[in-house]
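Input sequence (154 aa), recorded before submission:
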Amino acid sequence: MAGSLVFQQKAARTLAFKILFQRKSLGILKLSESWLVEEENFKAPVLQYLQQVLAFSEKYQQELEQKISFALIDWKMDRLQTGLYAVLIVAGSEMKMMEAKLAPEKLNFAVIANEALEITQKYLGVEAKKICNGVLQKMHDERDKALLLPEQEL
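Predicted structure, token format:
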């Protein structure tokens, strides 16, 4: 049962990527996304997880875009592929959920990064995977630095 739930979370993460990709590239309205979700037939906790990832992606979109932009050394956000943007926003949303203690207990940066890299390689290719890996690592490192700052000031 637990393995099934993990597999469904992976599917939910992939669906979140697809929904954000469609929102960004096609301007799909949220109401028309419901059929995508219904096709997956997720269990209630996984559906709640998908909804939470999408809600965090909306709520923290500007902050996540700033973090991604900062992590894109010598690149600008407008050069980023739409699919890569969507993957990074999903991963960033999950990182925000971890910070807020709203993510599943077993979710950690390694899981987030591995899933994001799998999605990136599957849908965008090896070169995009390299960029994704670098950006996620930089975002994670900056998050760790921010968490250490209060202790250093003591």
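Checked by second reader. The radius of gyration is 15 Å.
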